[in-house]
Amino acid sequence: MQEQLISDTSQAFRSVFHSEPERIFLAPGRINIIGEHVDYSDGFVLPAAIDKYICFAVKKTVDSDICTFYAKDFNDSFSFKVNEKQVPVAQMWVNYVLGVFNAVQESGKSIGGLQIAFGSTIPMGSGLSSSAALECGFAYILNELFNLGFNKKELAVIGQKAEHTFVGVKCGIMDQFSSVFGKEHQVIMLDCNSLDHQYFEANVDGYSFVLFDSCVKHTHLTSGYNDRRRDVDNGKKVLWERFPDVQKFRDFSFEMLDEVRSEIGEISYKRCMYLLKEIKRVEEAAKALSEGNAEYLGKLLNETHSGLSTEFEVSCNELDFMVEETRKENGVLGARMMGGGFGGCSINLIKNENVEDVIAAVAARYKAAFDIEMKVYRVKISDGINEYTRNEILI
Ligand code: GLA
Question: Which residue's alpha carbon is at the smallest distance from atom 10 of ligand 1?
Fold first, then answer.
């Protein structure tokens, strides 16, 4: 599938730019085992890059100050001058790359002309972070082609900045970090406060993580994502006024939160309560994973879903239904919505021998309830953004 994507994207490059691409880059999407919405609240997350990618076919142009993008999946193009300041535009996909360009420019670095065609196997609006792959893929390419000297953390932060400034979504760092730092077979335990991270094997022998796509599409520009951040920020402001010596959000206790309950109001209280509980769950999940305790991990996934659904309120009827029906099946240890929410995928921990039966049962009931065909993704944990060599490309 990856070979097909590379070949299709190279072909698109040839037909639009009438020449061969010089280099090919792959930027992956991500899953997140657990740790949802805590990446902008000093939490820990447990994501991993997956074998679904945005592929970029790229060529530097000589004597040109123009960067031209061709988005194969939208059959749409956009060009901009690399020595001028850029502002957000109406074509949504363009803002991800212009935002990256702007962040690079603001850091005082400059780039030359480029031609880029890109295509994707990451389903959009499904909670698998196609946006981060686009942002960080482009940042990585600029860094490589123009020797900008950014390190990997800086590339992730540039991607996040693009999303904040040009797209308007106040996302955390998890998606960009995973796309840049992913490693085959390894889950990343990321401290979103310090960006310290460690890798470890997802040790769940006999079980698989399988994704069910509700096919309810969302964009976090219009979902409640930014509202949730506002609710949380209201709570944090009062907490820090009351307890100024606390360094990180995760160090507030449940008792401290209870003390400010009436001042911050029920909504902010519920949101902050969810976050403090979720941050603790991630630490327990990391332990469960490293000890191979799949049952306990499954229980934590279930708790996360109910927190996301009732306290953080970022699920939707379709996801709640899918998760509930999945849990009724034999061999299912845990199921929860994944990512920012308001649609997208669930992540399910299922005993290998039961996977087919679970898929058949849940897909049938989902279709009967909502008249939607659920999609299923069996993803492999893969490397982060990578370049493919010319020989590999052109076979
Ligand atoms: C989206 C955001 C991430 C993170 C998740 C929820 O994917 O981009 O930063 O907040 O939602 O965990």
Answer: 37
CB-based contact 145:114 (threshold 8 Å): yes
Cα 340 to ligand 1 centroid, rounded to whole Å: 5
Looking at domain 2-200+382-392, its CATH class is alpha beta
Q: What is the average per-residue pLDDT within 154-169?
A: 97
Q: What is the pTM of this model?
A: 0.96
For residue 395, what pLDDT is reported?
A: 38
pLDDT tens for 253-275 read: 999 999 999 999 999 999 999 99
Contact 21, 393 (CB under 8 A): yes
For the question of residue 175 being annotated catalytic, the response is yes
3-state secondary structure 253-314: CHHHHHHCHHHHHHHHHHHHHHHHHHHHHHHHHHHHHHHCCHHHHHHHHHHHHHHHHHHCCC
> Does residue 291 carry a pLDDT above 80?
yes
pLDDT(390) > 70: no
Q: Whose CA is nearest to atom 5 of ligand 1?
A: 340
Asked if residues 27 and 385 have their Cβ atoms less than 8 Å apart, the reply is: yes
Residue with tokens 């074509």: 91
The pLDDT score that the predictor gives to residue 394 is: 44
Q: How many C-beta atoms lie closer than 10 Å to residue 269's C-beta?
A: 20
Whose C-alpha lies nearest to ligand 1, atom 8? 171
For the chain, the helix, strand and coil percentages under 3-state DSSP, each to the nearest 5: 45, 20, 35
Q: What letter would DSSP give residue 381?
A: B
Residues 207-378, CATH architecture: 2-Layer Sandwich (3.30)
Q: From the CB of 172, is ligand 1 less than 6 Å away?
A: yes
Catalytic residue among 39, 42, 51, 175: 175
